Amino acid sequence: MADLLRLENVSKVYSHGIINAHSTIALRNFSLTLKEDEPTILTVAGESGSGKTTLAMLLLGFITASAGQIIYRGKNIASLHGAEKMAYRREVQAVFQDPFAVFNPFYTVDHLLTVPIKRFGLAKSKADARNKMEEALTAVGLRPEDILGRFPHQLSGGQRQRINVARALLLKPRLLIADEPVSMVDASLRATILETLRNLQRDHGVSVIYITHDLTTAYHIAKSIIVLYRGSVMEAGDVDRVIKEPQHPYTQLLVDSIPWPNLDQRWGAQPIKAREVGGNTDGCRFRTRCPMAMEICKQDPPLFRIDERHAASCFLYEKRPEIAKAQLSELLPV
Ligand SMILES: Nc1ncnc2c1ncn2[C@@H]1O[C@H](COP(=O)(O)OP(=O)(O)OP(=O)(O)O)[C@@H](O)[C@H]1O
């Protein structure tokens, strides 16, 4: 089966400063493969500065790799020209974090959607263009009659972000690079936008590279995940396996900092002592392994707070069990 996209040991080094010139390795020997006939959602996750946006910029051809190759449907993207380059620009689309930045406040939504239609010659007539706009808006769950004719300030952030996805969809892309598409949208709209991305993959056969620092959303929509830290891949694989059984300490830390909600318990209901020691464990991956976590879970009522200190103490248990045990003896009895 042919590859849609293959990255082979791609690295990106930024050089900065003139007098005291120094360089940053933003991405190091990064490889991945997406199959043409298996549209999928792949998450690239990592904290700030781990190289996620650099990867997006490389994929979109905005910057060039310092080493390695990016092969799209058998061709190195650095060597594309003319019609091939145009096809690449059409087939690889992006949705960025800020749903406001893309819009020119003086133009209506219609204009935003008409520009790519004209640029890529996608419609035979005005009526055809209108149909295509309506189809794309409907595909992202928007009602064209409510949206067309409006200015950006007359739309919510979630609507704006879905219009960005609709704009990408108009071009019938094969690959969508979604760089933190929900991080500036309020929580109630996140699920809708993520569901839109999932529909693109499932119903329209578009592969999605979902770039995020948020493992919770990654877990909900992606099939596989690559965890980046300072430009290097720490761990990669099936999203379920990586999040439930992370192997690398950095991934473990990222997973432990996810605030899985427990709707049966309210914040602030836990004994003070446990909070002082670093608290609680509900939803904690370590609870079956870490004695500190297990003891806390035995308490009645069980403590449930998840916080950074807890993550740190669990991590500590793995690295420095003597300190973790001292904390545990301080904790019991509550
Ligand atoms: N144009 C640039 N010149 C020099 N260094 C850069 C440039 N762009 C990014 N970097 C550096 O490269 C590294 C990776 O940056 P990048 O923006 O790719 O990270 P990120 O994971 O997207 O971070 P964030 O989540 O904060 O956007 C960082 O150390 C950053 O400071």
How would you portray this structure in words?
It is a peripheral membrane protein. The protein folds into two domains: 35-65 and 77-246, P-loop containing nucleotide triphosphate hydrolases (Rossmann fold), CATH 3.40.50; 259-331, no CATH class. By secondary structure, it is α/β, with parallel strands linked by helices. The N and C termini lie far apart (59 Å). It is built from 14 helices and ten strands. The model is unreliable at 265-313 and 330-334 (pLDDT under 50). Helix 10 packs antiparallel against helix 13. The protein has a six-stranded mixed sheet with strand order 6-7-8-3-9-10, with helices on both faces. The protein binds adenosine-5'-triphosphate (ATP). Adenosine-5'-triphosphate is lined by residues 14, 16, 24, 26, 46, 48-54, 213. Adenosine-5'-triphosphate binds next to strand 1, strand 2 and helix 1.
